[in-house]
Amino acid sequence: MAQAIANITCVAIGGRGVLIEGAPGSGKSTLALQLIDRGAVLVGDDGVALDLRGETLWAAPPPNIAGKLEIRGVGIVDLPCSEAPVALSLLLAEAAPRLPEPGSGEWFGRAIPRLDFRARAPAAAIRAEYALARFGIP
């Protein structure tokens, strides 16, 4: 059964989910917007429904906010949304290692690679795509 998790944003890149974790105002929605501009699909903004299907953790849009993304200074916009198997978690931080080694987060007993990530650094969306390619679950 899916469990709604607040304060996590998720996008799907090439069909693989990237959880974006961080405190309010840390840049979750902004990073998601940058990734969507590069071809990602919204899963959920400031909330996702997580569910274990077999051995795979899936993220889906919660029904009450499906397709809604908050853009600061603009408001809430409607976007296409999807669900995706979770491949990586980015934990937004003010400082992140220059050459990181991923840790892991755990949901429903399933370990997911987790990387400390600076969303406000230059080229954040491109770096997030490379992080998925390098550290994400295939």
Automatic annotation (TrEMBL):
Recorded hits in CDD domains, A to Z, give:
HprK_C (cd01918)
This chain belongs to which protein, by name? Answer: HPr kinase/phosphatase C-terminal domain-containing protein
A Pfam family found in this protein is Hpr_kinase_C
The record's listing under SUPFAM superfamilies reads:
PEP carboxykinase-like
What molecular function does GO assign, one term?
kinase activity
Q: Does the keyword Transferase apply?
A: yes
Tell me where in this chain the HPr kinase/phosphorylase C-terminal domain is found.
9-79
Keywords in alphabetical order = Kinase, Transferase
InterPro entries, from UniProt? Hpr_kin/Pase_C (IPR011104), P-loop_NTPase (IPR027417)
